[in-house]
Amino acid sequence: MMIQRGHRLFFAFCLFCGFLLFLFVWLFENIYITASGMEPAVSPGDYLLVLSPGGQQFVPAVRELCDISTLRRNDLIYVRTPDEDRRRVILRVVGCAGDEVMIVDKTLFVDGIPRDESYVTFDDPEIYPRDLSVRDNFGPIVVPDGAVFALADRRDIMGDGRFFGFIRDEHLRGRVLLCYWSRDPNGRLYPVRWERLGNPFNGKIH
Questions:
Q1: How open is the CA angle 153-159-164, to the nearest 5 degrees?
Q2: Do the Cβ atoms of 82 and 167 come closer than 8 Å?
Q3: What are the angstrom distances between the C-alpha of 81 and each of 6, 86, 107?
Q4: Domain range holding 102?
Q5: Is position 203 within any domain?
Q6: Residue 161: which CATH number?
Q7: Which of 49, 80, 154, 193 is 20 to 30 A from 91, comparing alpha carbons?
Q8: Assigned domain for 6 exists
Q9: What is the mean predicted confidence (pLDDT) over 2-20?
Q10: CA atoms within 13 A on the CB side of 77
């Protein structure tokens, strides 16, 4: 009797673990970062946990967390770009529905107010005029309902909403939650970067 009970408990435990694994696979996507377009918030060698819209049929609360309308400024999102390249990239939300977004000489303005973007890195001191490129002078545009406007943190080297427009639900692959593992891809023996582990991406400035 004790053996049969032990078998039942083991079987129940296996089912429970299988259920948790199933939920994890459907709720989350694991992303390994190879590009430097979001440094320093996200660096090559980071492993990110992304909440995926694919799990909303199993956990209804995911629908709210991954809906475009619930995103806030400074949220990091994993998207498939709406241009013909259809790249998968990490970007930062800088404008939500109804916001007026404009860039003047590399400075971001939202609703006419310059934003404090301490996380942004500029690699090129030159400022391109509007008639040459939208890189440094862009807009103004108003973000429509059902969309967000998202930019990279390294504005001079990364293609983002300035070049391909708004992000909508069909482009959203998920909301970036945290960095759960990180190793220096250039270091000897790929040392772990402990200080990056557990960094949350929840609308706060990083």
A1: 120
A2: yes
A3: 52, 5, 23
A4: 2-196
A5: no
A6: 2.10.109.10
A7: 193
A8: yes
A9: 60
A10: 36
- Please, what is the Cα angle at 173 between 97 and 115, to 5 degrees? 40
Joined tokens for residue 186: 């250039």
In a domain, 205, yes or no: no
Q: Which residues are within 8 A (CB) of 203 and not within 5 positions of it... i.e. 6 or more apart?
A: 72, 73, 74, 75
Total of domains in the chain: 1
What is the pTM assigned to this prediction? 0.82
CA 164 to chain centre: 17
For residue range 38-51, what is the model confidence (pLDDT) as tens digits? 999 999 999 998 98
**Tokens standing for residue 59:** 């956990």
Place of tokens 């590009």: 35
Q: 48 with 181: CB under 8 angstroms?
A: no
Over residues 126-136, the pLDDT tens digits come to 999 999 999 99
Among all chains, which residue has been given the structure tokens 């998968």?
88
Is residue 123 scored above 90 in pLDDT? Answer: yes
Percent of the chain with pLDDT over 70: 77
Q: Cα separation of 166 and 147, whole Å?
A: 6
Amino acid at 5: R
